[in-house]
Design brief:
By secondary structure, the chain is α/β, with parallel strands linked by helices. The protein has 16 helices and 13 strands. Helix 9 (170-194) runs parallel beside helix 14. The protein starts with a helix and ends with a helix.
Amino acid sequence: MRSARLAVIVALVGLALSQPTVSWSIAQSSSPAPSRPTRQVTDITGRIVTIPSRVSRVADPWHANNGMVLMMGAADKIVATTLQARRQPWFRKLFPRIEQVPAAFDEAGDVNIETLISTRPEVVLMAYGGTVPRWKTTADAYGIPVFMMPNTSLADLKTTARMTGDVLGPRESARAAEWIRYFDDNIRRVTAVTSRIPASERPRVLHTATGTILTIDGVKTVIDDWITVAGGVNAATVVSNARPVGMEQIAAWNPDVIIVGTAPNEENRRAILKDPRWSQIKAVRTGRVYVNPTGVYLWDRHSAEAALQVLWAAKTLHPTRFPDLDLEKETKAFYAKFFNHTLTDAEYETLMRATAP
């Protein structure tokens, strides 16, 4: 009997050494861990995902959605994040503890599975663009629920906010609903004007990363959606984000407006203005090359600040049609309401220049 008990203990110790997170409760107690109340939620793929009734530990491999969780007042629930989210200057300013949260996910979304397991997440909030990450099978084996949400349009963004709130809890769900109402109000406010703009007066807008590595954001994207809402037309006819194109294609599109949306935004904008290859592009000749604002995350992407992006884009593309739109006032009110931060004038300027606070 004694030798049998010893064999069990040795086996458990071996399991604990090889799988520290999963075996933690077993190693600490000889009795089974008490079962926790659970609930079921349905993700965008139609999968029914079982999660704790009260979620307190979240892994978020989606750079932008970390900011959504922060907006809902639940950043303290993030136990695993991405390198990019952890590096965002405004995220660090508003939630300094993000620097201590393990970055289980790299820039490309690949996972260090050992790091992920060690953080003991109760759910992983995952962007779904039609494919399931390779590491999901391992997460399933360790009993880590993966909840997937859509990420290709402004409508998807609102769905993701609602779903994130549903997973996090009643308080966060109410916050998500409040944000969605605000976002919808901004879209209605803008489209009340831009819907009346004739096609001939809608500028062709090119959204790009840099002037040297030509990656363009095309149609069927969040970016395409807000360009349309703001009264523009996406100059790029390629499909999806970050599509490589040649300078000959840029010249053929000959956009009226160029928006630079990748850090360091201002350096990239200046590079375009100084590069002789761009000199004959209409947006460069007319001085309509702009830096896209950046804050907790990139305003132009699948982020909480997309609610401000539609206002900024409308004012930028059609300044005379929105004379009463005070973007500084709107931005300061948004940060006070949704991020509990009172922006100074200087801080507002850093958002507009996409620089660190």
